[in-house]
Amino acid sequence: MIGLFLFLSQISFATPFLDGTYVHSCYTVGDDTLASQVKIQNQDWTITHTAYEDDKCQKPYLMYETAPHIKTP
Q1: Bridge partners for 28 per DSSP
Q2: Which of 22, 38, 65, 67 is the most buried (most CB within 10 A)?
Q3: Is the pTM of this model over 0.70?
C-alpha cells in the first residue's frame, strides 16, 4: 500500500501524459490476496482494490473503490 501511495505521489505532476489504466495484479499482503487498479482519465483518478478468498485471485469477496474525486493540481 505504501508503494502505491509513493507511485501516485511521484506521477501526480505528469498526469496529462499518463492517461490509462495501471494494474497491480494478484499479490499478497500478510494473509490477504489483493489486486489493485488505478485508472487515470484527464485529471480524474479512480483507484480500485479487490480482495480475494483464494491466492490465485479467482473468488473476489470485497471491492473498495474511490470515485474520481482525486484531482491533480
Answers
A1: 33
A2: 38
A3: no
HEC readout, the chain = CHHHHHHHHHHHHHHHHCCEEEEEEEEEECCEEEEEEEEEECCEEEEEEEEECCCCCCCEEEEEEEEEEEECC
Task: Name the burial class of residue 39, with classes exposed (0-12), middle (13-18) and buried (19+) by CB atoms within 10 angstroms of its CB.
Answer: middle
On the question of pLDDT at 57 being above 60, the answer is yes
Matching residue, cell 491533480 = 72
How far, in Å, CA of 29 to CA of 33, rounded?
6
The model's pLDDT over 3-55, given as tens digits with 9 standing for 90+, comes to 655 566 555 555 567 889 999 999 999 999 999 999 988 878 889 999 999 99
